[in-house]
């Protein structure tokens, strides 16, 4: 009903709706998936400090994923590449001191871009907590999530400007 | 009392920080104690206490795996608070814990709607973030109109997040496309880089799944590709074009220029540069300038010290290897060097590239080097190496193998690599070569013997398949064996008890074949009453000395009898039955062996039995086409689809006689197509090898024309290989170790033996591009769907056209002057497009969507 209502008021796209055959739309859009599957922050001992999943996973499945990812990245030499295959996807990870930042993305995604993306996230955290350390993340877990939500939405990178996110965070803090 | 209790709870509630501090002291008991507190606190009416409790629970759920599904209703309560801080905690909990099955999902629709309509942009963005994560079919349907409104919001923050949510909404409620698509497209022309980034991300996802539908938007994407300065946006647009160009080649030509432009820039980001290269390699590889530039740029990656760049360089090369092998050959030094890299990822990519460069001239050399690598590598990589050698060498019926003796002995070597776990593949190839390549059988038997007589190999279960193949080969081709006695002894050695029963059965059956062969030779040698020595000259075709004396034959029989005695009581029926068969046969002929030495009567029962068994085994086995079964005509009266319940009855009658005469079914898969070229056997020995095999092949073709299609193929191959030699000549050697091996060696010491080829269904493992055929069927389905609805569509199109005109009119009045212009432009373009579409439809069905002239 809502749709019909809108369609009456605002006639369907002037652009190219006629090319959207209904079956086609159904068939193809159903398989859409977000690009980033999950982001994990783990320390060397395998303790998860932050976990955000952009695909629905069972609680037990999440544990398995976290365990596997940690095992994959923790023993890799610093001279190795920052990419590991993980099931049918790949994990782009980067180590900062004792913390591993891991992103799980599609096999065809741009590795370097996501590596930059991790670094940007760390820079934001560093700026926000001024010299971030593991304890900051432990005690401010809700704020880390807020930053992350500004950064990534629905598995897509939302904001690539460090300044914009920092500004938004201070706005949000004022609201509390 | 209750209220004072709750007051106490609120006053002395642990904050999140207290909880975290407590957790750091000691975990398990503290968690359960905290959970009790949380359960109590979360039920209180005070929203502050409730929200802190929810926050603590979220923390425990996120980092300690505590279940929080039970608190779903409380999360909805917290969200309804008017305070932002509470809302934030509530939405976070919902995004974290709700799934499609959460029962209270229905309760949040109104709350979400309220927040989406809120004047506070932070609340709106919280609601959008939540919807992006948990949106169900119902939520997407009910909130489409809100998302549509927000797509046009004047606040960039809100609009950006609304764009991000659209993907989820489309996914769950495809009808939303009709509503929101136009506004989404409008955002493509936004000047705000963040908005652009978001909307390009959405289109990147949409295009990846169905490129054809988005071809009409190519001009918009092109503009972004040329104008944008944001690496992230450019990467996404390149991904879009990689998809579009692969279905519309004319687009590739157009896009190549701006892509080159980006690659030539001095300070271009590595991520963007890599995306450009990947786009060129995957979709624009027909554009010569772009390809050359990309290959030049990839070299920078390959020589970089950063392992990431090196890996990506190799990875990109493997994309282009199939179509433009020269790009790989130009960088072969780097590839070879990467083989000794520390990182397994880099090594693996290098290995794949190395195998792509293998041809018939360098296969020996490269395989030798790789086998040395394999011996030094860790088990995982070692098996990768062995696997890729096996795949590369067996491609197209061993197209690149000239010297099969070498290859068979290489297979034998592989079995002796300590980490080898590729037994299955090696087994398959050993048998395959035995049946296909007549000239390789002598070496095959030699290699098999070496494997069989080594008792150490029996202990490694990964090698059992290989041993099974070796046993089969030395039984099937026993006439090439120098010492049948030795083979039989190896087949029955005590350590064979380590084998699985199915393979043991093959061992016994092979021993049986050896026995029958030896007896046959013994009896036929005795026949002409000449001394065994004279026999050597007549049987020179097999280069084997068939001199069986009475002593040697009886010791062979005794040895086999002894070896099998213990097996006749085995639990496994297959082993038991075969052992008993052989023992029965021995019992039948044993006493006559002794007689034979004295009497000269050739018409004994034993003689007939042996002649019969020889007859059974002399049928040669050939390769079987994977589609052979389809070609067998259905016999009259055979009902395949009927209920098989009555089978029990019939089986009892049919199976019993079969079991007795079933000697020839040594391996089910091979007994299917016994190729009868036995009568050629005698003729073959006198002819020179190539002629012999070609006449064999011709005969085979005559008899089994069913399995053949065209006859020219193998000759064509040889021609083509000749040409390849010339082309690979252009790349001289450069690096110490294996780069030498790329040097083409012109001389071919001996002609390539004939490999029996089935023209179709030859390699069952290689599926002909499953993915592409899948896509094809999909697009075909869409096309037929479109054609079927042709009539309806005509009408619809007219209606849409009318709408267009109306839109332009009404909207012109409604909208501000800035937007007016834009809409008009859109309207014009789309009507142009729709008329073109109609033309396109008349012209051909295969191109349902035309690319606007603007680009071509």
TrEMBL record, chain A:
Q: Locate the AP complex mu/sigma subunit domain: which residues?
A: 36-175
Q: Where in the cell is it found?
A: Cell membrane; Membrane, Coated pit
According to Swiss-Prot or TrEMBL, what is its membrane topology? Answer: Peripheral membrane protein
Q: Which residues form a coiled coil?
A: none
Query: Which domain of life does the protein's organism represent?
Result: Eukaryota
UniProtKB keywords: Cell membrane, Coated pit, Endocytosis, Membrane, Protein transport, Transport
- Give me the segments passing through the membrane: none
Q: Which Pfam families match?
A: Clat_adaptor_s
InterPro entries (alphabetical): AP_complex_ssu, AP_mu_sigma_su, APS2, Longin-like_dom_sf
**Family according to the record:** Belongs to the adaptor complexes small subunit family.
- What name is this protein filed under? AP complex subunit sigma
Species for this entry? Brassica napus
TrEMBL record, chain B:
Query: Boundaries of each Clathrin/coatomer adaptor adaptin-like N-terminal domain copy?
Result: 28-491
GO biological process terms, alphabetically, are: intracellular protein transport; vesicle-mediated transport
Give the UniProt subcellular location, in the record's own words. Answer: Golgi apparatus
Q: Where is the composition biased (Polar residues)?
A: 770-782
Superkingdom of this protein's organism: Eukaryota
Q: Where is this region: Disordered?
A: 708-856
| Residue stretches of biased makeup (Basic and acidic residues) | 713-723, 757-769, 791-807
Q: Record's InterPro entries?
A: AP3_complex_dsu, ARM-like, ARM-type_fold, Clathrin/coatomer_adapt-like_N
This protein's UniProt keywords: Golgi apparatus, Protein transport, Transport
Q: Name one GO cellular component term.
A: AP-3 adaptor complex
Q: Does the keyword Ribonucleoprotein apply?
A: no
Function summary: Part of the AP-3 complex, an adaptor-related complex which seems to be clathrin-associated. The complex is associated with the Golgi region as well as more peripheral structures. It facilitates the budding of vesicles from the Golgi membrane and may be directly involved in trafficking to the vacuole. It also function in maintaining the identity of lytic vacuoles and in regulating the transition between storage and lytic vacuoles.
Q: How does the record describe its quaternary structure?
A: Adaptor protein complex 3 (AP-3) is a heterotetramer.
Q: Which family does it belong to?
A: Belongs to the adaptor complexes large subunit family.
Per its record, how is this protein called by name?
AP-3 complex subunit delta
Organism expressing this protein natively: Brassica napus (Rape)
């Amino acid at each position: 009903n809502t749709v019909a209502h809108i369609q009456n008021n605002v006639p369907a796209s002037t652009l190219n709706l006629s090319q959207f055959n209904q079956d086609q739309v159904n068939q193809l859009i159903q398989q859409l998936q977000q690009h980033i599957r999950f982001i994990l922050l783990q320390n060397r001992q395998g303790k998860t400090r932050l976990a955000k999943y952009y695909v629905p996973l069972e609680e037990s499945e999440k544990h398995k994923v976290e365990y596997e990812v940690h095992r994959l990245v923790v023993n890799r030499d610093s001279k190795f590449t920052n990419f590991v295959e993980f099931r049918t996807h790949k994990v782009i990870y980067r180590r900062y001191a004792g913390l591993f930042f891991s992103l799980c993305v599609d096999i065809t995604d741009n590795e370097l871009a996501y590596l930059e993306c991790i670094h940007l996230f760390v820079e934001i955290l560093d700026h926000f907590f001024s010299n971030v350390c593991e304890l900051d993340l432990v005690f401010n877990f809700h704020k880390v999530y807020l930053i992350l939500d500004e950064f990534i939405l629905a598995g897509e990178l939302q904001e690539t400007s460090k300044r914009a996110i920092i500004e938004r965070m201070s706005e949000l803090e004022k609201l509390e | 009392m209750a209220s004072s209790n709750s007051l106490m709870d609120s006053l002395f509630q642990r904050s999140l920080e207290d909880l975290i501090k407590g957790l750091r002291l000691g975990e398990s008991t503290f968690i359960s104690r905290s959970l009790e507190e949380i359960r109590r606190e979360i039920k209180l009416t005070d929203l502050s206490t409730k929200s802190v409790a929810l926050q603590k629970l979220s923390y425990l759920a996120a980092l300690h795996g505590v279940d929080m599904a039970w608190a779903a209703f409380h999360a909805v309560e917290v969200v309804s608070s008017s305070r932002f801080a509470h809302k934030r905690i509530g939405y976070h909990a919902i995004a974290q814990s709700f799934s499609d099955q959460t029962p209270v999902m229905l309760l949040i629709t109104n709350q979400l709607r309220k927040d989406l309509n809120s004047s506070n942009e932070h609340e709106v963005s919280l609601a959008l973030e939540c919807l992006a994560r948990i949106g169900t079919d119902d939520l997407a349907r009910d909130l489409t109109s809100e998302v549509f409104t927000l797509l046009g919001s004047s606040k960039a923050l809100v609009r950006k997040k609304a764009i991000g949510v659209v993907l989820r909404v489309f996914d769950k409620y495809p009808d939303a496309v009709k509503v929101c698509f136009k506004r989404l497209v409008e955002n493509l022309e936004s000047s705000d880089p963040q908005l652009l980034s978001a909307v390009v991300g959405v289109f990147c996802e949409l295009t990846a799944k169905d490129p054809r539908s988005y071809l009409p938007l190519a001009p918009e994407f092109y503009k972004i590709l040329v104008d944008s300065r944001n690496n992230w946006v450019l990467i996404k647009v390149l991904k879009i074009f990689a998809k579009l160009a692969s279905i519309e080649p004319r687009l590739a030509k157009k896009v190549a220029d701006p892509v080159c432009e980006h690659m030539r820039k001095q300070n271009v980001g590595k991520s963007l540069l890599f995306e450009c290269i990947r786009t060129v390699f995957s979709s624009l590889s027909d554009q010569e300038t772009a390809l050359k530039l990309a290959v030049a740029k990839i070299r920078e990656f390959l020589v970089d010290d950063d392992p990431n760049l090196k890996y990506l360089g190799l990875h990109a090369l493997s994309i282009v290897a199939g179509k433009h092998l020269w790009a790989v050959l130009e960088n072969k030094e780097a590839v070879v060097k990467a083989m000794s890299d520390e990182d397994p990822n880099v090594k693996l990519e290098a290995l794949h590239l190395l195998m792509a460069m293998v041809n018939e001239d360098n296969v020996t050399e490269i395989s030798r080097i790789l086998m040395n690598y394999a011996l030094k590598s860790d088990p995982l990589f070692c098996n990768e190496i062995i696997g890729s050698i096996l795949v590369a060498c067996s491609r197209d019926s061993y197209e690149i193998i000239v010297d099969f003796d070498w290859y068979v002995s290489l297979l034998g070597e592989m079995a002796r690599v300590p980490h080898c776990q590729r037994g299955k593949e090696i087994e398959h190839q050993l048998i395959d070569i035995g049946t296909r390549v007549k000239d390789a059988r002598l070496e095959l038997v030699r290699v098999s013997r070496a494997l069989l007589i080594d008792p150490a190999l029996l202990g490694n279960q990964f090698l059992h398949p290989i041993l099974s193949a070796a046993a089969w080969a030395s039984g099937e081709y026993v006439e090439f064996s120098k010492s049948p006695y030795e083979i039989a002894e190896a087949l029955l050695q005590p350590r064979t008890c380590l084998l699985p029963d199915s393979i043991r059965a093959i061992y016994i059956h092979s021993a049986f074949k050896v026995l029958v062969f030896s007896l046959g030779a013994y009896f036929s040698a005795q026949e002409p009453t000449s001394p065994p020595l004279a026999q050597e000259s007549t049987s020179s075709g097999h280069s084997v000395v068939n001199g069986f004396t009475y002593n040697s034959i009886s010791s062979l029989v005794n040895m086999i009898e002894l070896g099998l005695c213990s097996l006749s009581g085995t639990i496994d029926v297959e082993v038991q039955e075969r052992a008993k068969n052989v023992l029965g046969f021995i019992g039948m002929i044993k006493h006559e062996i002794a007689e034979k030495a004295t009497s000269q009567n050739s018409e004994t029962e034993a003689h007939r039995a042996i002649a019969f068994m020889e007859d059974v085994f002399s049928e040669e086995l050939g390769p079987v086409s994977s589609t052979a079964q389809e070609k067998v005509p259905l016999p009259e009266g055979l009902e395949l689809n009927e209920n098989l319940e009555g089978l029990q009855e019939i089986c009892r009658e049919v199976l019993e006689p079969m079991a007795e005469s079933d000697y020839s079914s040594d391996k089910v898969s091979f007994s299917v197509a016994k190729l009868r070229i036995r009568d050629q056997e005698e003729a073959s020995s006198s002819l020179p090898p190539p002629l012999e095999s070609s006449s064999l092949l011709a005969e085979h073709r005559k008899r089994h024309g069913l399995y053949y299609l065209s006859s020219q193929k193998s000759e064509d191959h040889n021609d083509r290989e000749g040409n390849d030699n010339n082309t690979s000549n252009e790349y001289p050697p450069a690096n110490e170790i294996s780069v030498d091996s790329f040097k083409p060696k012109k001389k071919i010491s001996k002609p390539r033996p004939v490999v029996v080829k089935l023209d179709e269904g030859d390699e069952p493992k290689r599926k002909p591009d499953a993915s592409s055929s899948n896509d094809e069927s999909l697009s075909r389905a869409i096309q037929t769907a479109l054609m079927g609805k042709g009539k309806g569509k005509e009408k619809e199109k007219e209606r849409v056209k009318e709408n267009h005109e109306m839109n332009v009119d009404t909207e012109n009045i409604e909208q501000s002057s800035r937007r007016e212009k834009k809409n008009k432009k859109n309207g014009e373009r789309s009507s142009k497009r729709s008329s073109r579409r109609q033309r396109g439809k008349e012209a051909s069905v295969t191109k349902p969507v035309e690319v606007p002239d603007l680009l071509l």
